[in-house]
Amino acid sequence: MARAPGGVLLLLLWFWFWSWFSGSSLGCLQDPAAAYRLSGAVCRLTHPAAVVLNEKTTRVIEAAFQSARYPRMAGEKAVLFVGKVLYGLDNLEISNLTIGRSDFRLLPGVGIAMEIQNVSAVFRGMLQYGYGSWLVNVGHSVDFEIESQIDLGINPKLYCGGGKVAADTSDCYLNFHKLLLHLQGDKQPNWLKKLFTNFITFTVKLVIKGQICQEINKVANILAEFIQDTAEHFLSDGDISVDIGVTAAPVITENYIESYHKGLTTYNHSSAVISDSVFHPSQLTEDRMLYFWISDEVFNPMVAAAHHDDRFQLNISGGHFLVSCLTGTASPELRVWSSSVPRLNTSGSGTRVWAQASGRIDCGSPDRPALVFQTVPLAVRCSPSSQESILEVELTRLLDKQGANLFDILNPELLPRDGFVLIQMDFGFPHHLLVEFLKKTLQ
């Protein structure tokens, strides 16, 4: 069984989004419903998103064909009046690759059926052959090319492997509609061309099929590592990181693929625990391309970790915040920090944060007293309208900061609910990111 932690082809591209949510995990539950209460984050990718991602499948197919390395093919055949004919095909390379179209279907409870049709390619190399008997031995070499037209099918099955979304890609097949062998030059005898065409073609089919399917799995693993490295960077900042390993295998319906993740904040080697999540699939719809369901049980440990890591501090210096204090001073400063662990709660009316803050104003001169205030209670509520107004800007800022600024986020919406936040959006595929990966793959 071939394992590709991020999937293959279209599946790999879909896993790009899930891989922001793919960390290590000790195990997965067999029943998705049982995993709901352990899931702090859920990702749903709908059929319209799959259609967009499918447009990029051909680029991955091209990479698989072009980066494949074909072994030397050799064989022999006994021919009447000639004796034993030995042959070998060397230096097989691909050129003139074109791909017609790529189609897919979501198979509920099973996986994804993918068909790549009208793959045309020319394979070139050198044919070495010899024939003879006890009377005479003859050896030759000649350049050759093979015209091919192929349909490629892959039926990856999704499962939970090592706490990550994985795929069994062993169901891979090629249908050859055309496979023509052409020998270079006109001096080769027609009987030889006919002979080689008859018994070499079968060998070539087997080798091409084996290498292409093997290369698809190889590209899958390379992309999985590429995604995982990027995701690891995205989900960590200093001593704060998030383990979002899957809690169960993905669920596939005709309209979407849904994956379930832990969402456990880790700070200084201490990890949060989620055991009573309120997730249910009915809380998500199918109208947008991409959904992220995130529990308050994910946000609160993150906020607590940020507090303990002294992230909630603000220093303001300059002459604009307290004129009466600053008159005649050179270096005034206002410092504000959180003095207790903030607490967050989400409801249909918005998100409310409770915290305590402390502050100190230094007027920049030894003979002027400092003003100190401590444990000032704060309660801040963000309504849905105010959250939505800054969501697109903040998401873009976060992606830029973490080096993932190639996503085109379209019309994001943040919908606060009782105990969780639902983020729904459309997107444009990060084409340049795929190009970067393919360049690394083909090096």
Automatic annotation (TrEMBL):
The UniProt entry's GO biological process terms, in alphabetical order, are: cholesterol homeostasis; cholesterol metabolic process; high-density lipoprotein particle remodeling; low-density lipoprotein particle remodeling; phosphatidylcholine metabolic process; phospholipid homeostasis; reverse cholesterol transport; triglyceride homeostasis
- Report the SUPFAM superfamilies cross-referenced here: Bactericidal permeability-increasing protein, BPI (SSF55394)
The Lipid-binding serum glycoprotein N-terminal domain sits at 44-270
A molecular function annotated in GO for this UniProt entry is: cholesterol binding
Q: Where in the cell is it found?
A: Secreted
Q: Extract the PANTHER family matched here.
A: CHOLESTERYL ESTER TRANSFER PROTEIN
State what protein this is by name: Cholesteryl ester transfer protein
What is the gene called?
Answer: cetp
